[in-house]
Design a protein that fits this description.
124 residues, seven-stranded mixed beta sheet, mainly beta, four-stranded antiparallel beta sheet, 11 strands, 0% helix
Length: 124
């Protein structure tokens, strides 16, 4: 089992940057692929980015490619999401999730372990 806790969400102006963190507690963090999803009010939860166990494999949604960067530090049991060039449409609650492999990495219903979310609001 693994517990996840996100942090770093804030109110930021369009064009600004944020770094989200997701700290993991419990079983070996390095055994999990890690994924960020987001959910805007009235919308379905959507995939943002994924990273494999060692950080060598990454995936991004088209809407964030070139602006967001996912990374992980297995020595700190933490995954990060760097958000640059933020737009108002990036406003959402951002969730991290863990899975034992990267299959179905962009489908939220395949994930068992979730954090509580962190709010990102981009004013424009």
């Amino acid at each position: 089992q693994i517990q996840l806790e996100e942090s770093g969400g804030a109110l930021v102006q369009a064009g600004g940057s944020l770094r989200l963190s997701c700290a993991a507690f419990g079983r070996s963090f390095g055994s999990y692929a890690m994924v960020w999803f987001r959910q805007a009010p009235g919308k379905a939860r959507e995939f943002v980015s994924a990273i494999g166990y060692r950080g060598r494999t990454t995936f991004y949604a088209d809407s964030v490619k070139g602006r967001f960067t996912i990374s992980r530090d297995n020595s700190k049991n933490t995954v990060y999401l760097q958000l640059n060039s933020l737009k108002p449409e990036d406003t959402a609650v951002y969730y991290c999730a863990a899975k034992t492999d990267l299959t179905h990495y962009d489908e939220s219903h395949y994930f068992k372990y979730w954090g509580q979310g962190t709010q990102v609001t981009v004013s424009g």
